[in-house]
Structure formats: C-alpha cells, structure tokens
Amino acid sequence: MQLSPKDAWKRILDEARRELTEQAVGTWLSPAEPLSFDGAHLVLGLPDEFAVKWNEAKHSAILAKIAEVVLGQSVAVSFRVPDDRLQRPQIDFFVAPPPEPISAPIRTTQSPLPLNERYTFDSFVIGKSNELAAAAAYAVAEAPGRTYNPLFIYGGTGLGKTHLMQAIAHAVVRKNPSTRVTYVGAEHFINEVIEGIHGRTMPDLRRRYRSEIDLFLVDDVHFLEGKEATQEEFFHTFNTLYESQKQIVLTSDRAPKEMPGLEDRLVSRFGWGMVADVGMPDLEHRIAILRKKQEQDHLETTIPDDVLTFIAEHVYSNVRELEGSIIKLLLYASLRHREISVDLAREALADRIRPSQATADDRPKALPSIDKVQDVVARRWGVTPEGLRSKARIKSLTVPRQIAMYLAREVLNMQLVEIGQAFGGRDHSTVIHSVDKVQRQLARDRGFRDRVDSARVELTSSAV
Ligand code: ADP
Ligand code: MG
C-alpha cells in the first residue's frame, strides 16, 4: 500500500531528527509541507526559493538516504515553492545577482548611525563558519518580523557580525524603501539613555526608539552588561517593538547565556528567535574572502593569486585582519615602488605572520612552549597550571587563564583554535574574548600592565 505524502514525510522527518542537529531540523525541515509522493519521489513545499536552494544543497542527499532506510526503497526527495506561495515576493539574493546596484543612499530615517554601503549580502562570503548566521540573516531580510525575531548573531571581533546585520538592512530597504531602519551600537544607546535621564528627555528617546522603527539593529549588545538603567530601558524598547512585530537584530561577542551581567529577562528574550554564531573562517573560506575583496577593489592584476593564498595561509585571526593585510601590503609596495610578490608580502606582513611559518633563516630565537606560558602565569598568579587548563569558571582562575591566553597569542603567535585546545578545549570565540579583555585592561591599568609585562619578559628571556 502506498503511503500518503504526509506519512512518508513523517517517517523520514522522525529519523532525520536523529541524524541532523535540532537547529537544522527546526529551521529547515520542520517548515516543509509534503506535496506529493508516488513511491519513488517525494516533493516537499517550502515558503521561499532560498529555503529550497538551501535544502537542496544541504539536505536532499541525506534525506534520500534516510528515506531508503525508513521506507525500504530508494526515494528522491525534492523541494519547491508551492504555486500559491509564488505570488509572494521571493528572496533573490542567493539565487540571482541583485537586479540593480544601490544608487540612492540608504534611507535610514533617524538612525543614530549610518549604514556602511559596502556591508551588503552581495559582498559577504558564506562559508562553514558563518553559514547558519548568513542563512538566518537572509531569511530575516526576506520576511522581517516574521521568521526569526530577534535574530541574535554572536562571535569574535572582525568576523562579520556588523556586516551581516547591516546587509539585512540594505536588503530590506531595497525591497521596501519606506522601511524605517535604526542601526545603533549598544554603547551609543547607553549614552543616549544616560543623557536622557540627565537631560530629562526620556519621553523623546522612548518615542524615537519605540514608535518610529520598523527594523531595529543593535550592535555589540555585550556592552549592556552591568548597565542596569539601560537594560531596563532596552527591555521595554524590545518588548514594544517585538509586540508590534518589528524585526530586531542583535550582535554580541558572546551567546546570550554567556553574559552574566545581563538580566535574565533580557537573556531569555535574546534567545526567543534565532541565535547563530559566526566563527573563524577556514583556509578555503579565507581565500574566497580575499578573492571577493580583490574583485571588489579591482586588484586582480595588482595582487597575484599566490600572494592571496600566502596571506590566507598566514593571517587567520579574523576577517578584518585579512582586509588590513591587503591594505598594508598595497601601501608597503607603493611606498617602495615594488611589485607585489610573496617575498614582498612576507616582508610587509612580518608582524602578522607566525614566526614558525616564516622562512627558516629569518626565524627568531626559539619560542617557549604553551606549557611554559601556563607554568609561568600559574606561578605568578598563585594558581596551578591544571587549574588554567580546567573548565572551572571561578574568578581566581579566569583572570590568569585570560592572561595566559593573551600571552600565548602575543608571545607564541598561536592560532586561536590551538589556544582554545590548550586551555581545556575552549571555543575560539572565548579566546578572542579573553585576549580582548586583557588588552582592554592593559590599556587602562598600569599595575596590571607591569605585572603582565614582567611575565612576558620572563617568558621571552628564558626561551630555549
Ligand atoms: P564584527 O562586527 O564581527 O567585528 P565586521 O562585520 O565589522 O566584524 O567585519 C570586519 C570586516 O571584515 C568588515 O570589513 C567586513 O566587511 C569583513 N568581513 C567579515 N566577514 C566577511 C565575509 N564573510 N565576507 C566578506 N567580508 C567579510
Ligand atoms: Mg561589529
């Protein structure tokens, strides 16, 4: 007896839940509606063309395998947008290049900060490290306020959070030019609230943030940590916009749950929609990003391919640094009137590339090991090296651990991922956060700086 489309899909989906992540199933497969099944071919309906492409690329093959197991015969699984849905506007960014370049400046109405024209979907290169965040951003841009609200994007510095967030705004405004977009950094919002309280202009601030916005982009919400008055204000702004189905997009350097200085009610709201991270791009992805920049800035003839690959191999901390390397190289070459080559790149970027990856003869004296860094920091901060490598989150360990991570990065030039591994298998974004935190404190705390410096001196002078 032939199964109905619904029953066939149910069996496959039940098994898919075991094979795929909850997020993949929830986001991409649960919304599918079985349209037809003839024993050999199951057709599933999806709300938009983007979801169709995504599922075809990511899930068709695995679903066919699952179908073979649970239905006992080989079944092709395909996706399409049902005819009645096709009447609705479709997302076209992924499928076709955007129809016309952005000509008029983006209307951001009263947005406190302008959008960067370059931060579009078109210039954003998708890879493994950001595909979920990018997919969610596309989905949000297609149906603001209706798919994932809020969209929360988190990850280390320079990994494309602001770019992706602004790309949503560009896409939404392109489709619907009357959309009122407000893009604001959390720090700016904090200052406005402080001014509002002192200058008694809160009613004005509330009006601007609660009733004049269709798309609300708040960058770097981790700055809200510990700012109680601002969190209170933000909470009400969030609720008002959310209740009137306005789209909210947030970025942070950490996941909502990892922000202890944030009120629980905000943490929980931040997780209501979609939480997606952006990570470090792998080599292939870095090459693709550099190629995109090369193409955008018409540098194909100026920067040869082997130089691009060289940069991608050696600069891996984040995308901003990759871009910075190109600029630095261009400047270096132009000041010296030299052609760009791998040798020149090695020279120009000497401060950014790992010594162990430079050529043997210009390698400086041997570096201490990560164990040595952990030993020195542990001894100087009165903890054990095992403690530094453990998962324990007590304050007496967190600070020296962050310092040791910072020194591993600075003195050993280790990759973030390697550092994470050496410290109990932590995520690279945790390492970025630690290094950032130490850098910030070094900049403002003299005693701290002296203490870290003397650890650094011990490490570099005792290197064997
Ligand atoms: P973040 O907000 O995460 O610190 P940004 O969005 O400011 O990072 O990105 C830093 C720089 O790197 C920007 O110039 C941005 O255009 C670029 N960038 C980041 N990720 C990508 C990507 N996937 N494709 C193209 N450019 C990227
Ligand atoms: Mg940013």
What does this structure look like?
It is a single chain. The protein has 464 residues and is of the alpha/beta class. Helices cover 53% and strands 8% of the residues. It has 21 helices and eight strands. It has helices at residues 5-19, 22-29, 49-58, 60-71, 83-86, 131-142, 161-175, 186-198, 202-211, 228-243, 264-270, 283-296, 305-314, 319-336, 342-348, 370-381, 385-389, 395-410, 416-422, 428-444, 446-461, and strands at 33-37, 41-45, 76-80, 151-154, 181-185, 215-219, 247-252, 274-277. The strands form two sheets. The chain has a five-stranded parallel sheet with strand order 5-6-7-4-8, sandwiched between helices. Strands 1-2-3 form a three-stranded mixed sheet. It is globular and about 80 Å long. The N and C termini lie far apart (75 Å). The relative contact order is 0.07. Residues 88-108 and 356-364 have low confidence and may be disordered. The structure holds adenosine-5'-diphosphate and magnesium ion. The site of adenosine-5'-diphosphate has 17 residues, from helix 7, helix 12 and helix 14. Residues 161-162, 219 line the site of magnesium ion.
Which secondary structure elements does this structure contain, and how are they paired or packed?
Blueprint: H1 5-19, H2 22-29, E1 33-37, E2 41-45, H3 49-58, H4 60-71, E3 76-80, H5 83-86, H6 131-142, E4 151-154, H7 161-175, E5 181-185, H8 186-198, H9 202-211, E6 215-219, H10 228-243, E7 247-252, H11 264-270, E8 274-277, H12 283-296, H13 305-314, H14 319-336, H15 342-348, H16 370-381, H17 385-389, H18 395-410, H19 416-422, H20 428-444, H21 446-461
Parallel strand pairs: 2-3, 4-7, 4-8, 5-6, 6-7
Antiparallel strand pairs: 1-2
Helix pairs in contact: 1-4, 6-7, 8-9, 9-10, 12-13, 12-14, 16-18, 18-20, 19-20, 20-21
Adenosine-5'-diphosphate is lined by residues 119, 123-125, 130, 157-163, 289, 292, 319-320, 323.
